[in-house]
Amino acid sequence: QVQLVESGGGLVQAGGSLNLSCLTSGLSLKNYAMAWFRQAPGEEREFVAAINWNRARTIYADSVKGRFTISRDNAKNTVALQMNSLKPADTAVYYCAADFNPSTVTVRTSTSVYEYWGQGTRVTVSS
Q1: Angstrom distance (rounded) from CA 123 to CA 49
Q2: CA-CA distance, 9 to 4, in Å (whole number)?
Q3: Distance (Å) of CA 78 to CA 21, 24, 30, 120
Q4: Which residue among 1, 66, 103, 123 sits deepest, i.e. has the most Cβ atoms within 10 Å of its Cβ?
Q5: Measured distance CA(125)–CA(127) in Å, rounded
Q6: Model pLDDT for residues 95-125, shown as the tens digit of each residue
Q7: Alpha-carbon distance 77 to 12, whole Å?
């Protein structure tokens, strides 16, 4: 049974930092690209960041570029999202997702290609 469990969300003031973590089980992480998405109240789920299986390729949404960093540790079955210089606009539920994609050059950003999802962790940034 595949499980993705996010943690690390919370309440933070604008300008602060949070580090989200996603612990996976039930899949061989080396075959999967991993991503973070987020969904604000009343909004559609949107792409935040992704990393391919061997960390050779990362991609970020323009809105978080330069502030967020995605990383992974395949040996520990974890994916992280370091979020710095947080803004109230970053307030959302953040989801970890896995895409079966052994490519070393391609990382995808569409929600429809990600097969497995976590339950989400809430991030609230106060002004």
Answers
A1: 16
A2: 15
A3: 7, 6, 11, 15
A4: 123
A5: 7
A6: 999 999 888 788 999 999 999 999 999 999 9
A7: 27
- Which amino acid appears at position 107 of this protein? V
Is 102 in contact with 82 (CB distance < 8 Å)?
no
Q: In 85-99, which positions are buried (b, 16+ CB within 10 angstroms) versus exposed (e)?
A: ebeeebbbbbbbbbb
Question: β-pairing, 92-100 with 116-117?
Answer: antiparallel
Residue spans of alpha helices (H) in 33-101: none
What whole-number distance in Å separates Cα of residue 96 and Cα of residue 94? 7
62-80: per-residue pLDDT in tens?
999 999 999 999 999 999 9
